[in-house]
Amino acid sequence: MAVSISVVLLLLIPAVIFLRNGALKISHALVCVMLGFYLASSSMAPTIHQGLAATADIVSGLRP
User: Fold this and answer.
1) Rg, the chain, Cα only
2) What is the top-level taxon of the source organism (predicted)?
3) 60 in any annotated domain
4) Quick check: is 42 in a domain?
5) Helix boundaries (H) for the chain
6) At residue 38, does pLDDT exceed 50?
7) What is the mean pLDDT of residues 30-51?
8) What's the structural domain count of the chain?
């Protein structure tokens, strides 16, 4: 659950910056959101989830 929230925040911050700068239009943002919903309901969703979980495990195991 914590990984999902972190990924959402990491994607939300640049999206807000792009919207404020005019580099991302509302219509483009809506298309990206719809793509996300379609990916979440596709057969690739478990693979994407496992890949993000593995990446989070690797990053959390790094020592500075």
Assistant:
1) 14
2) Bacteria
3) no
4) yes
5) 2-21, 26-40, 45-61
6) yes
7) 83
8) 1
